[in-house]
Amino acid sequence: MNTIIKINNLTKSYGSLNALVNVNLELKKGKIIGLLGPNGSGKTTLIKVLTGLLKQYSGTVYIDGHLKSNKSKALISYLPDQLFFDSWMKIKDLKNYYKDMYTDFDHDRFQVLLKKFKIEDRVYIKKLSKGNQEKLQLALVLSRRAKIYIFDEPIGGVDPALRQIILDTIMNEHEPDSTVLLSTHQIYDVESLFDEVIFLKEGRVLLHKPIDELIETSGMSLLETFKEVFKYA
Ligand SMILES: Nc1ncnc2c1ncn2[C@@H]1O[C@H](COP(=O)(O)OP(=O)(O)OP(=O)(O)O)[C@@H](O)[C@H]1O
């Protein structure tokens, strides 16, 4: 089966606010997919449902052919939009924690990535610059041999040079044949990377298309299409 994520009639409300409304999506193995939409369109909410952080919703979510469960979380390596570790730890302690926590953690790949990022594993996390903490977090996420990688704003708030390093690393270091779902507002930087894009608007899927098809039918770049679709009145 070629489908890795299947979402049927997913609706998620926070009180009276509908953050996701009747979302239906089918994501294929091996694809790099952009999850795009304006602020508040539901991207993080969708990601939190997929990663198991949100459990209260209606609809069904299948991961690799099985109804989403605690087990399916093990298939997903997730980079949240905020730093997720305790900064008082040393990097090597964090690495050991990851090794214990995730059976798919590839220690050698982690060391290679640390070397690439010029980060020593003897140091305390709090001594790293914010940019290096972002790189460390990315190295941890990419060092899992996961079937699905989900990145929520991996390049928000970092300078253009680091943005490029982060994107290159995501593109080159994820497990072959895995699916990458990446949410960002920095569309200009990512447009050449995606196989497919999803546009979310007010919790609804506006479109889900191969990027070539989108660019061909609209006659515009992804960024121009985004601006046109989401232009404010
Ligand atoms: N914990 C929460 N409680 C109440 N409302 C929430 C909560 N989390 C998100 N929302 C609301 O749900 C809607 C969708 O939010 P979400 O964070 O999923 O959007 P987003 O597309 O990721 O936005 P951004 O691009 O700004 O990060 C927004 O209206 C937001 O205010």
Automatic annotation (TrEMBL):
> Any keyword Nucleotide-binding?
yes
* Domain of life, per lineage: Bacteria
- This protein's UniProt keywords: ATP-binding, Nucleotide-binding, Transport
Q: Which CDD domains match?
A: ABC_DR_subfamily_A
Instruction: Give one GO term, molecular function aspect.
Output: ATP binding
Domain (ABC transporter): give its ranges.
Answer: 5-227
Q: Which PROSITE patterns match?
A: ABC_TRANSPORTER_2
> In its UniProt entry, what is this protein called?
ABC transporter ATP-binding protein
Per the UniProt record, the source organism is Peloplasma aerotolerans
The root-end lineage is:
Bacteria, Bacillati, Mycoplasmatota, Mollicutes, Acholeplasmatales
